[in-house]
Amino acid sequence: MKILYGARRRALQVPFEDPADLDQADYEELMKVEDAEVTAQPRRIQEVGIGKSGQASSRRKKEGPGFHVEQLLASPGSLKQGQTLAEREVNLGRRIEKVLKELPKGASTCEKVAKTPRRLITTRGAHGQRLRRGLMEGAVIVFFTTGYEGKRFIYEKAHALGVRSVLIDSAGSWSEKLVEEGLAVKFIALDMSMSSDEVFREALKAIEALEKDPKVGAVDGVATFAELSVPVTARLAEALGLPGPAPESADMARDKHATRAALARAGLPSIKNYEICCEADVETAAKIVGFPAVLKPVSGVASVGVKKVESIAELRTAYLDRDRELRSLVISSGAIVKDDGSQGTTVGADNVIGARFLLEHYLDGDEVDIDVVMSEGEWQYAAVSDNGPTLEPYFNETWAVSPSLLPRQKQVELKELAINAVKALGFEDGIFHVECKYTTNCGPQLIEVNARMGADLINHFG
């Protein structure tokens, strides 16, 4: 091997077999530079540790080649080997434990997060999870409406993580007993027969008063796992200056017609659709969308009021039947059920869900759920699960399986559509339950975006 060195490209060649074998004599020969070259290129020569006198810098060890030449000839030179992965993990764990120990006592979660380096908070793996759980411990989280009793596991998990839960729901809700059981610190009863704006204002007033409550204190976050409560929860977060989705994004997700418009603006795959606000719109909708088609409430949930139609006659009948069905429903303990006269002080669904409908082109193919976790505008997790064949014409789901049995490429395409749909609605952070189909002729197509955690079996899938 030969090393070429010289100013003005005048070569000085020193033969040796290995850079580590460069001895003192070779090094001294390598460092000889003519005075004329020194004068012509002092900057270049100084860069490798030579002064104007042609002598080696006094800072360099005289017995060795020094930093610049060592890195030029035999990098990494005399540097010690870096830490092993195991050593890095140990050191990371020690640092995170130190951060947790030094967090101010009695500080709110927001204050703790502000004092913690961002790159540690987003660290992947067990140590990162330990830090995030440590930051969450003691946090005061308000849950606006608690859903049906099957969601009890959410509040049990929150308690296990050290969260101090405040629950807002109707008087007599099943969740009132969670305070007695020690799973929540406070229950706030609201009259849900009020208008949405009145409920919002009453909830905001109650949450703001918690700061002076010695048993609770300042609130760190607001959340919901109930589909109908997403728009109010978004506005509560905004009014309180807490993390949450923009209200306009939450509204678009709840409005299937607005969701379709957002997809079109973003250049994403979509289908023919038309909003039906009254019976007079039915014929126009049929002409624009065609058949087969699917009629559904614009802001519906749980496939309530959804039906496949094959003709204009079926559409007219379905529209009138669907409208009557919605107005006969009641909301009991966070669930939408048929009114059998025994529900007591429940709220008629016609007070909550407007009678607007959407007619969409029928989508064939496999129906799937894609659950997505977003943070700072980028997805952190996305998983596809299969729904199994839905029972037409009402599209009742039959079963679910995870991981998906679809080919990998189809899953990739479905994930991309789901993530892009969430972004098209303007969401940057949160958990989303996205429903799609992989159609025979049009590839992946969106059904809807739900700006909350999936229900039923989804939350049990890893």
Model description:
With 462 residues, the chain is α+β, with helices and mostly antiparallel strands. It has 4 domains: 2-74, no CATH class; 85-136, no CATH class; 140-244, Rossmann fold; 255-460, ATP-grasp fold, B domain (D-amino Acid Aminotransferase, Chain A, domain 1, 2-Layer Sandwich), CATH 3.30.470. Helices cover 35% and strands 19% of the residues. The chain has helices at 24-30, 35-40, 42-47, 66-74, 85-102, 109-114, 118-121, 126-136, 152-160, 177-180, 196-209, 230-240, 247-254, 256-265, 282-289, 312-327, 408-424; strands spanning 2-5, 12-15, 140-144, 164-169, 186-189, 221-223, 273-276, 293-297, 307-309, 329-332, 335-338, 347-348, 357-361, 366-375, 378-386, 430-439, 443-450. Helix 5 (85-102) packs parallel to helix 8 and helix 12 (230-240) packs antiparallel against helix 13 (247-254). The chain is globular, with a radius of gyration of 33 Å. Residues 46-66 are annotated as: Disordered.
